Amino acid sequence: MLNYSEIDSILRALVEPTRRQILERLSRGPATVSQLAEPFGMTFAAVLQHLQVLEACGLIRSEKIGRVRTCRIEPGGLGPLADWITERRIPAERHLDRLGEILAETDQPSPKVQDQEKDEQT
């Protein structure tokens, strides 16, 4: 059973463009908070708040060594959201496959029409 509160927290975290950009940067490898803050023109404290949200929902993790905090993507952090999407995608794809079959059947002329076409050609 999926944990919907976990999915909700991931979606709330991803709705913010800054957080998505942070995740994009971390997908290339670990980075310090200073490195993550650099392109955003916001206070260090504001970036830390974004990082706390990402960490709280399990998308990233961080560790502090001395005065330097380094962040990295949490493997499997998007797993619950991916599972939820998959559970909805598979039935929808089945419905679309069946619709395609029905449409393919209706595109083929019935045997009666085929016989009439043969008679007209002779």
Shape: rod-shaped
Question: Which regions have little confidence, pLDDT < 50, spanning 5+ residues?
Answer: none
Radius of gyration based on Cα positions: 26 Å
Helical coverage, percent range: 55-70%
The major sheet is characterized as: 3 strands, antiparallel
Sequence of secondary-structure elements? HHEHHEEHH
Q: What's the tally of helices?
A: 6
**What is the strand content?**
5-15%
Features:
single chain; 122 residues; mainly alpha; three-stranded antiparallel sheet; 6 helices; rod-shaped
Describe the protein.
The model has no long low-confidence stretch (mean pLDDT 86). A three-stranded antiparallel beta sheet has the order 1-3-2. The chain has helices at residues 4-14, 17-26, 33-37, 44-56, 79-107, 111-121, and strands at residues 31-32, 60-65, 68-73. The longest helix is centred in the C-terminal third of the chain and has 29 residues, at 79-107. The protein contains six helices and three strands; from the N terminus they run H-H-E-H-H-E-E-H-H. With 122 residues, the chain is mainly α.
Sequence-ordered SSE layout with sheet pairings:
Elements: H1 4-14, H2 17-26, E1 31-32, H3 33-37, H4 44-56, E2 60-65, E3 68-73, H5 79-107, H6 111-121
Antiparallel strand pairs: 1-3, 2-3
Helix pairs in contact: 1-4
